[in-house]
Design brief:
Number of domains: 1
Shape: globular
Number of helices: 4
Order of helices and strands: EEEHHHEEHEE
Largest sheet: 7 strands, antiparallel
Number of strands: 7
Distance between the termini: 15 Å
Strand content: 35-45%
């Protein structure tokens, strides 16, 4: 695998989301960061590419048994075309990191935190919604996800987006930049 260091080109562009659920009430916590740094792992072999495809499906059982199945699903003719799906395009304005195989190295200087219901609160009055959001925020500040679990909310999902173009620098296994980067 090749490894690329990914960073946003603009401040305050990294946004981390956490989704919580209790029965039919869904809540999203949005946390904006001033900056972040990530490593993207890009397949180099047919086997690595098939594994990448199976990781995107998220099933315990392999979905893609061979490269041709993966190519057909993505509408690509060859491995070279398929590799374009495994690494962000630098000049795109939006990057959903779960589209890639990645590790978060760091984020810093949280700039905002917003909580919002995403569904299931139609039975609650506006006042009840405000009260519940305040309670969730207070519990999270006190005890993070454990605090929300005390209220009956389970953590369902996390994902991170970058809302600007990015830079990519190829790095070695020790995460040192490689000369003549792409």
């Amino acid at each position: 695998m090749k490894i690329y260091r990914l960073e946003p080109t603009l401040k305050k562009s990294v946004v981390e989301y956490d989704i919580f659920r209790k029965d039919d009430i869904w809540v999203r916590k949005e946390l904006g960061w001033r900056w972040g740094e990530f490593d993207i792992f890009v397949p180099e072999t047919e086997e690595e590419l098939i594994q990448w495809g199976n990781d995107r499906i998220g099933s315990a059982e392999p979905y893609y048994e061979n490269l041709q199945q993966l190519l057909d699903d993505y509408g690509e003719e060859d491995m070279e075309g398929m590799l374009g799906h495994t690494i962000p395009t630098e000049n795109h304005e939006f990057h959903e990191l779960s589209d890639y195989e990645y590790e978060m190295n760091s984020t810093w200087d949280g700039c905002w935190e917003d909580w919002a219901f995403t569904s299931g609160v139609d039975k609650l009055s506006e006042e009840e919604q405000e009260t519940l959001l305040e309670e969730l925020q207070e519990k999270y500040l006190e005890d993070y996800e454990d605090g929300l679990a005390e209220l009956g909310f389970e953590h369902v999902d996390s994902y991170t987006d970058i809302h600007c173009p990015v830079t990519l620098v190829e790095v070695d296994e020790d995460r040192n930049p490689i000369e003549n980067n792409t």
